[in-house]
Every structure is written in C-alpha cells, then in structure tokens.
Description:
Two copies of one chain form a homodimer. By secondary structure, the first copy, chain A, is an alpha/beta fold. Chain A folds into three domains: 4-54, 434 Repressor (Amino-terminal Domain) (Orthogonal Bundle), CATH 1.10.260; 58-157 and 288-315, Rossmann fold; 159-286 and 318-325, Response regulator (Rossmann fold). Chain A is 47% helix and 17% strand. Chain A has a six-stranded parallel sheet, sandwiched between helices. In chain A, helix 1 (4-11) crosses helix 2, helix 2 crosses helix 3 (30-43) and helix 8 (159-172) runs parallel beside helix 9 (187-203). Chain A is elongated, with a radius of gyration of 25 Å. The A-B interface holds A 46-51, 53-54, 57, 69-70, 72, 75-76, 78-79, 82, 86, 91-96, 103, 106, 109-110, 112-115, 216, 246, 249-250, 253, 271-273, 276-278 and B 46-51, 53-54, 57, 69-70, 72, 75-76, 78-79, 82, 86, 91-96, 103, 106, 109-110, 112-115, 216, 246, 249-250, 253, 271-273, 276-278. The structure holds a DNA duplex.
Amino acid sequence: MARIQDVAKHAGVSVASVSRVLAGLPGVSDTTRERVMRSVDALGYRPDLAARRLRSRRTDTLGLIVSDIRNPFFMEVSRAVEDVAYANRLRVMLCNADEDPDKESFYLEMMRDENVAGVILSPTLPMLARYKSADYPFPMVLVDRCNSTVEADAVVLDNVDAAMRLTRHLIEAGQRKIAFFYGAGSATGQQRHDGYLAALAGAGLSPIAQALRPTVEEARVVARNFLERQKPLPDAIVASSGLILLGLVEALRDVGLRYPDDIALAGFDDMPWTRLVTPAITVVAQPTYEMGRAAIELLRARIQQPEQVVRRVVLRGELIVRESSSPRK
Amino acid sequence: MARIQDVAKHAGVSVASVSRVLAGLPGVSDTTRERVMRSVDALGYRPDLAARRLRSRRTDTLGLIVSDIRNPFFMEVSRAVEDVAYANRLRVMLCNADEDPDKESFYLEMMRDENVAGVILSPTLPMLARYKSADYPFPMVLVDRCNSTVEADAVVLDNVDAAMRLTRHLIEAGQRKIAFFYGAGSATGQQRHDGYLAALAGAGLSPIAQALRPTVEEARVVARNFLERQKPLPDAIVASSGLILLGLVEALRDVGLRYPDDIALAGFDDMPWTRLVTPAITVVAQPTYEMGRAAIELLRARIQQPEQVVRRVVLRGELIVRESSSPRK
DNA sequence: CTGTTAGCGCGTTCAC
DNA sequence: GTGAACGCGCTAACAG
C-alpha cells in the first residue's frame, strides 16, 4: 500500500505538495500538480482515510437514522439521500432505530464516535421532546418528524393540513362517524391526529381515535379487535400512515368487511398497492424523494455554513381521491 | 473530549493499562481494571475511532452493497443485516449500486478505503463474471446473486428450482403458452429464466421470454407494448421478480386486460400487495430476512476464520398458490 | 510556490 | 502486573 511519502518521493516533491494537490488547494504550480497526479496514478495511491480523519478531525461521512427501515417512505427518503451523497462523493451510514429510543441513542453516540460531518434523523417522540441541536457535536437535520417548538433544521410534511384535508374530504363524501388510527409514538402521527380532530371539530363531529404502534402487524390486530367490538361500526376509518393503512385493509379482509360499502377508507402514503387493490384507496401522497433530497441539501448547507439561520422546509401533501372514500352509487 | 491520557492520569495508571482494560486483555490486576473503569465513567471517555483504526488497521464496520434499495427484497435483507450488526455492535454502511457497475465499483473501492471488516454484496452480472475474492482486501459474501462457477461465500435462493416449480404449477393449471418477463441483467434473473425453460422443455412447450431492466416502470412499459402487439396473447405470464410483477399488473390495468380470465399471472416475492389485490397473485416467496441473516453470519464467520472453506447457503422458495394462476371455473 | 516538521490519539512493543 | 516511548499516515503551521 503506497503511502503519501512514496508518492512524494516518486514525484520528487514534498509530502506537503502531494497533500495540497490531493486536497485541491491552491498554491501549487501546474507542473508540480501534474507530476503528483502522475505519480498517484503510477503507484495506485489511495489516501488512508483513518490517518486523514485522525489528523484533520473531519469526515466525509453522513449519518442517516430512520425510525423504520421497512417503511417504504423511509426507503424513498434514503434513496434520495444516497443519490445526492453519491453525486457529492459522500459516504452515508444508514441506521435503523426501529422506533426504539435506546437504539436511537446508541446510533447517535455512534455518529459522535465516527465524527460524522452531519446527521439526518427522524426522531422518536422522547428524542424530539428533549431535542436541542447544541447537544450534538455535529449538524443535524430532522426529517419527517418535527414540531413547531423545536428549533432545528427540518424537512416535514404539513401534517395537520394534510390530515385535515383528508378528513374533510371524507366528511364531504357524506361520512359522519370517522375513526382515526394513528401512531401516537411520533410527532407525525400526533400532528395528523390534530388535523383529524380539527376537521371533525369544524363539522361538529366527534372523534373516535385509536392510537397504536405504527406497524402492519399491530394495525392489523388492533383493527380486527376494533372492527369486531365497535358496534355500530363507524362510517369510515382514516389511517395515519401507509403501514397502518395496509394493516387496516388486511383486517377488513380478516373479518369479512368490504370497503367502501361497509366502511369507507382513506390514509397516507401513495404506495403502489393502494391503487392496485379494488376498490383503489384514497390517500394523501407525500413527496418522499423530494423530502430526502431537501434534507441532505439542508444538511450540506448547514455543514458549510454552521451559523446559518435555522431553516424548515414544509412540504404539502397531495390528496388523491380514489374509490375507497365514497359510498358507491 | 477526554483522551486516553486523561483517563490514565485520572486513574493514576499508565495509558497502556487503560488500553489493556478497554481491549479486555488479560494481564491487568482487578484493582487496576476497577479504577480504570471508574475513571472512564467519570470522564465520559470514548475512544477515538480514527486513532484506533489508524493504529490497529482494523474496523468494526461492514459494507452492504445492494443493487436496488427500492426493492422490498433488499430492504428486508438490509433489516436482517442491521439487526445482527446492532446486536454485535457493528457498524454498517449501506450503499445502493442501483444496478450500475460503475457505482458498484466505486462503492467497492470506498469499502477498501474505509478498511471495512467485510462486505455483503449483491453483484451485477459483469461483476459476478469476473469475481475473484482474492481481488479484494476484505472478506466478502454474495447475497441473492451467485452462480456455480464462482467460488465465494454466498446466500442464494435455489432460483432454477423455484422458477421451475412455479412454471410447472402453471402448466398443471392448464396453461400452454407461458411468457416469462425477467431481468436479464442479473444472475438471479438468468437462473430463473433457466428454470422456466427447463419446465417448458419438460412439457414440450416453447418459450416466450422477454428480457428487461428489472424496475416497475420498465416492466410496465415493456408489458404494455407486449400485450398490445402479441397476438394471440399467451395464456400466462411469469415475472422473475416482485418489481416486474408489479409493473405487469399495472400494464394489465392500462390495457384493460383481466387476470386470470384474459391471461394468467404468477411471479416472485410475496409482497403484501400480491395477496391484497383481487384476484390474489400466485408467487414464490423468498425467505428474505433469513437470507440477510445468513449472509451476515457467514461474513462474521469468515472474518473470524479467514481460511475457512467456502460456504454456500442455498435456500428454497415457497410456492404460494393463489387465484391468479388458474382459470376461474 | 515549496519543504520540514510537529503532532492528531491510540495500540503495542519492550523494559522494568 | 505495569509504564515509557515509538509510530500508524496524514494535515497544517511555519519557515524559506
């Protein structure tokens, strides 16, 4: 393994010059630069990252801590982050906190140990509640989950608005008793719950909210119980995420109920299956890729301008009306 | 940031003793160990990874290079790898090669630069064709994609067998003209193609194979063209992956064809939507999580026993017969 | 514009 | 069982 000294010797220059060329710093003559590049190629030299990091105390690595890697939403976000990172020759460490604050803390400490250049995080509720960017030795941007009291760079959907529009759509379609299944363990779930409540309040309707852990399995079990016990059935159910929506549809099958005839349905996340099933399902689509892209761009900006003013990107969900939300003629 | 010297001073011992305690090496008295641990806690000391790596030339980081991060199959694999890595306090760098050999090479070089302890890779075809484990300075295990000529630790499905069983099932269900849509750019696609051909040959039937890039969008477009041009239509179409299957179903919608009445359908990957759509779709389910788990276990074993004999884990797909594959009564 | 040199923080001899 | 000292490969400060 060739070292920087070997390159210097081969090129007949000092290690400092080699270092400068490699770092793309000014103050090197074209001839020197040329010779160095030639020697680098000749020797197949690759800088030792460990040494570089030890010395410079900096890294080209970003951390991405998502709360559920199985959620297609986060996959899409990850892909966007990956794409931009690759284009900029940045490494990214993807971690799955799995909605577990302990895992989340562990990974955050790992990021500290790794001396990462920055982190993109979708925080759990406890984490968000005590979040202060000053607690971390690296820039951080929040994605998907944030609230108005937390001062942090963030990229989020306008969840209250989206849930409100979705619920209103149901109301306008003639539904009265509208239930809401949501993940109470995240800021996003809570905000969508708020939007749901607001829409109901505006119409003088009373809520039937059901909190649960935001997984397909949990939603399926909870929904099954709900559907078997709740008499009379509500007119409609809204799911606060694509995963919950999926569990809900499975539960409907399990108990032999049909939508929208027996009960109307709507939810979040425009996953492929929501338009493939019959009847197709009304959802709010999130600009997932765009959210990931915005997050890493925000992070890169923050890394370059640490003192920059806090920025928040709020994106709007798109209501896609399909057949599941309205009674059939 | 406390350094090892600070701990040594605080504990009234030498840095060497601290290092020994931290590494869990023998040759340290219990009292010294005790004092060191206490000081570590008191100072909140965390070893500097960059320094440790520079000195030891080793890393606790694994690389995971998947060929398509959007494919639920690889998500599940990633999750398994994540889980095991977390349990063993290993870091993992997840990279998305996106079926692009250049990206793949870039990430492999990055792994070398990072001095990772090992890599899990789902190789592109060109990569697999020239693959020699000796070309890489780290242990590597292949996942999802491998062939019998390559000598490498690997975890794969028995693709030929699975495709054969799937195709035979179609034949037994009375289908005669059976088309096959597959990703020719991967070993997996090719092997499934082989299985398909074998099953047809066994029944004296002739193949209608269609190679394509293995994405939903591509499959949708190709299938749409195929369905509009191909007259008469085949009796059935088999998709070599979940993504292709999805595009196929969308194309069927696009051109207003119904399955299994107009054309039967079957494919790979037991994704949630395949049982949610009506009619539900016949598939071969892959033990995805298990494949990821096996891959990282293989890698860990190889890291600990570099000279161990090459091992290959071949898993069997599970045929799940649903309504899409048989003509309705 | 170029070269010399002093560490970055740790692991690991080798003495004691 | 313990400590002193060297060096992993590189960057940055400084001198020229």
